[in-house]
Amino acid sequence: MANHNQMGIDTSRRNLVPRPLSDSERAKLDEFIDSIHYSARYSDSEYEYRHVQLPKPMLKAIPEQFHDKTTGTLKLLWEEEWRAMGITQSLGWEHYEVHEPEPHILLFKRPLNYQAPAH
Questions:
Q1: Where is this region: Disordered (predicted)?
Q2: What is the DSSP string of the chain?
Q3: Backbone phi, psi, residue 14, to 5°
Q4: What phi and psi values does residue 116 have, to the nearest 5 degrees?
Q5: What are the backbone angles phi and psi of residue 109, rounded to the nearest 5°?
Q6: pLDDT at 118 exceeding the cut of 90
Q7: Residue 80, φ and ψ in degrees, nearest 5
């Protein structure tokens, strides 16, 4: 697992531990999965990035424990959380920021040339 601090991720903006979705919560999100939009990847000298655009109505279906009441955006999500919501990406991506003017856009990054750990 990537070291969150090395990647500059503010873990205080996450739930303390990943919060699982109940079956009924997951069912509410299922209808939106086919409408999630994934950007092309872009990179700098350290990381590759992409943004994931959720359909706006999907935000209302996401349980309130995933929302940051002070910013009006989602918290930074653990991998288990964003995967449970139906976001599908290869391994190594970390949710590192939300775009406050457009809270349905989640920003992800991972180290360049990321290699999944061998099992």
A1: 1-21
A2: ---TTTTT--GGGS-SS--PPPHHHHHHHHTTGGG-EEPPPEE-SSEEEEEEEPPHHHHHHS-GGGEETTTTEEPPPPHHHHHHTT----TT-EEEEE-TTSTTEEEEEEETT--PPP-
A3: -110, 165
A4: -65, 145
A5: -150, 160
A6: no
A7: -60, -35
Distance separating alpha carbons of residues 94 and 78, to the nearest angstrom: 8
Tokens of 46: 């350290």
Span 61-111, pLDDT tens digits: 999 999 998 888 999 999 999 999 999 999 999 999 998 889 999 999 999
Bridge partners, 75 (sequence order): none
Q: From CA 77, how far away is CA 15, in angstroms rounded?
A: 8
Burial state string for 50-61 with b = 16 or more CB within 10 A and e = fewer than 16: bbbbbeeebbeb
Chain CA centroid to CA 16, Å: 15
- Report percent pLDDT > 70 for the chain: 95
